[in-house]
Amino acid sequence: MTTPILEVRDLRKVFDVRREQGRGKEELVAVDDASFTLPLNGSLAVVGESGSGKTTVARMIAGLEQRTSGSILVNGVERGLARPRGAERLRRGKEVQMVFQDPYSSLDPRQTIRSCIAEVLSLHFELSSKDRDERVAGLLGDVGLAQRHASVHPRSLSGGQRQRVAIARALAAEPRVLILDEAVSALDVSVQAQILNLLGDLRQTREISYLFISHDLAVVQQVSDEVVVMHRGRIVEVGSTDDVLRAPADEYTRRLIAAVPRPGWRPQRHARTVD
Amino acid sequence: MSVVEELVLEPPTFVQRARRGEPLVYVLSGILVLIVLCALFAPLLAPFPPNHGNILAANLGPSGAHWLGTDQLGRDILSRLLYGARLSLLGPTMIIVFATTFAVALAISSVWIGGWFDQAVARLLDTLFAFPGLLLAILAVAMIGPGLLAPVIALTLAYTPYIARVVRTVALRERHLAYVESCQVVGLSGWQICFRHLIPNVSPIVLAQATIAFGSALVDLAAISYLGLGVQPPQAEWGLMVSDGQSALLNGSPWESLSACVMIIVVVLSVNILGERIALRNERAA
């Protein structure tokens, strides 16, 4: 068996929160001994309601949050706890990239789309300015944006267009793993579908693994092979998307599926009847 | 993958923005530019040398030769007003440039590093707030001696916390926005993120704060000169001119005090209104 591109072992995050009443602090366990693996070129979804700790898992993997204990292995190599410097920081950037939930805050309002993507390219690759512009154009094309979008500022773009730019920027570093933290949940359904199709297409043409963080089971069904269900910081169920959504073993997963506002909803893409 | 054709909204052109903007802003900016030009080209514009006086022609009213009259030593008031603009504007400019630089450096590094450092900076700013600017200036004069240097140092110290506190609050908000965090994930260094993204995005607020602080720094400096602790005679400076003209004012020739006062009021008023307009525009943009 090959090394998984991403492995998380006994990951734990405890926040110190101030007590609502009285003095002192108390501990809030946001993530409790989470373990899962993301296979090479795979697609894994972490689902759960808000407050279940799924975003904290994503932020720890991206290096935006310090873990309390446990380990994160990217391509079989453990990530240290210290703030990365120099070459290590760049190496991590080429391993894991992240697309954030809110398309309206995920781009620098003072930067044009071209310079936003070019900044990442010139950080990671030695390119002539001509080559760099070509790469920017190529990335914009990949995410389905027109070339004229390169010279505008984010304020001229819609939420869906901004999210595509955010994806293009993340892809510019050519990461092995792309984390999508509720990356489509702020968008309306048609734009959502376009972006999900785009992500599916990219997986055909590049070697890239996805880690989806989502509460939307319809999205998860469409894009991920495997699913991890989190509830109050703990992983309650792991399995292939079809199995988990069709025959949930855990009570919480059953309630999560039952909460989808479509009565009698069934997985449709790979719908199979049970003999 | 097909290219999705969607409408691209272009930002407003300069003409559109000028039409939308209020004429007051242009008038006030014009006045300030004019005053700065007067200060720069004072030697060319002034009809007389600023320190050359004829004691026999003292305390004259406005005339063809002396447009604003003469002071108690017979020096041309208009010439002194023009030369006075240099020191009167240089002082606050230095204070604001230094205070803004310190404030931005302090606020941004405290927000970026966070943790105990941020707490320490917050306490330091609270402590600095406790010192009134004028008192600090008087202390500095007592230590260093009268002149422009002591008040500038003291007021720089006094204005830094005012600007730093606002910058810190705004930078704290920006710090955890997704665009800054995605820069981190991409692998940009802290310096790169601060200089390319964080500082440019707080700069409109910095500009508004610095502009408003310029007005009060000018008033404070003028007050210090008026008390005789700042710029020393015979140098020309507006605050000093107000106090110099005091005895003449009591003797019925108000021109020196009056004209210097008017200059101070015009500059401070213009700068304050401009600063508020900048702040207002930031609010609308946010």
Report on this model:
The complex is a heterodimer of chains A (275) and B (286). Chain A is an alpha/beta fold. Chain A has one domain (6-258): Rossmann fold (3-Layer(aba) Sandwich), CATH 3.40.50. Chain A is built from nine helices and ten strands. Chain A has helices at residues 54-62, 86-95, 113-124, 129-142, 159-172, 189-205, 217-223, 241-246, 251-258; strands at residues 6-18, 25-38, 43-47, 69-74, 77-78, 96-99, 177-181, 209-214, 226-231, 234-240. The longest helix of chain A is centred in the C-terminal third of the chain and has 17 residues, at 189-205. Chain B is mostly helical and 286 residues long. Chain B has a domain at 86-285: MetI-like (MetI-like fold), CATH 1.10.3720.10. In chain B, 73% of the residues lie in helices and 0% in strands. Chain B has helices spanning 14-20, 23-40, 42-45, 77-113, 115-129, 133-144, 149-175, 178-186, 190-226, 238-244, 246-250, 255-285. Chain B starts with 13 loop residues before the first helix and ends with a helix. The chains are: A alpha/beta (275), B mainly alpha (286). At the A-B interface, helix 2, strand 6, helix 3, helix 5 and helix 6 of A face helix 8 and helix 9 of B.
CATH fold name of chain A: Rossmann fold
What is the string of SSEs of chain A from the N terminus onward? Answer: EEEHEEHEHHHEHEHEEHH
H-E order of chain B? HHHHHHHHHHHH
Model regions low in confidence, pLDDT < 50 over at least 5 residues of chain B: 1-6
Fraction of helical residues of chain B: over 70%
- Assembly state of the chains shown: heterodimer
Poorly predicted runs of chain A are none
- Taken as a percent bin, the fraction of beta residues of chain A is 15-25%
Structural class of chain A: alpha/beta
* Average pLDDT number of chain B: 87
Contiguous helical run count of chain A: 9
Cα shape of chain A:
globular
| DSSP E strands of chain B, number | 0
Give the helix proportion of chain A (percent range). Answer: 25-40%
Strand order, largest beta sheet of chain A: 6-7-8-3-9-10
Number of strand segments of chain A: 10
The overall average pLDDT of chain A, rounded, is 87
Do you know the CATH architecture of the domain at 86-285 in chain B?
Orthogonal Bundle
